[in-house]
Specification:
Distance between the termini: 59 Å
Shape: globular
Structural class: alpha/beta
Number of helices: 16
CATH topology of the largest domain: Spore Coat Polysaccharide Biosynthesis Protein SpsA, Chain A
CATH class of the largest domain: Alpha Beta
Order of helices and strands: EHEHEHEEHEHHEHEHHEHHHHHHH
CATH architecture of the largest domain: Alpha-Beta Complex
Radius of gyration: 20 Å
Number of strands: 9
Amino acid sequence: MSSRASTPPVTICIPTFNGEAYLRQSVESALQQDFEDFELLIVDDCSEDSSVNIAYDYARYDSRVRVYVNERNLGLGGNWNRCATLARGAWIKFLFQDDTLDPMCVKRMLAAARPGPLIVACARAVAIEETISPGEKQFYEYYAAEHSIPRRFPGESLISAEAFARHLVDHPIDNCIGEPTAVLIHRSAFQRFGGFRRDLVQVVDWEFEARIAVQAGLCYLSEPLATFRVHGRSATATSRATATRRFQRDFVDPLLVFYEIVHSKWYEPVRIAAKERRPPVDLSSRLLKAVDVAERSAAECQAETVWSGVKERYPWLMSAPPGRRLKRWARTKTPTCLLSVARWATRPR
């Protein structure tokens, strides 16, 4: 076993919160990597179960394992950022407490890295447990197949920043890169582009990965070297559990991402790509339409209080001219599938 280096090539980060059910499987998959020169950093976000004890059990017998317990709960994105801050490796490999890595994952992903891109993504398997309903199971399977690098960039293992910018014009909120368990990120990406946004519910990872890829591109490895587990207590499943959470996922998250694409300096390549289309794509108009759809959908989702809070925190969302309304909406029945409403609002006009 290799000794702990002050700056190892890779830090495998496991952010935990009440993850005792699957944490041992996750840690074991990390420690069984064919590539041994890494540190395993477990950062607990004030768990109320035995997650911390499990983490310390591994730290006692393997010098590569470090454990850190937050003084207060930082939430999803906040704990991911804490992991990145504490990591000492040149590359950061997230591994969620529910997920597992193939023994060759780290070694193969490091070998796939090329000069320039700061993200290496691999294909991921999806393990869906029996507690998930057939409808939800179908959704996850469809999403993993439809929104993937092979589907969006057939045959490509190196996607340029320019190509990714063109992709974002049409697919601004669909995660084709994958969950953090399926991604290797160079630590310099955090220094250059900031960290995960804590105000997002569902697309925290996607927005961060897209922000990097649109500036630096990414590498892709077609081997399924990571397994993403879906169960009733997972963060992904929880975000789909209530009407208000669905409203945040389907409307608030997209709005914040759309706004970044329209206004943030990091997404300027997307705006350039939209203008170069023939005919040009009006991203600002899409944002205004999405705001209107969200406001009209708050009542259907019983999320008026949530929407009021969003408008208070982000007053720029309501800066659209009042005459810009979706007249078509008023002439048709409100769609029952909230996700389809968000997609409809972002379709090219």
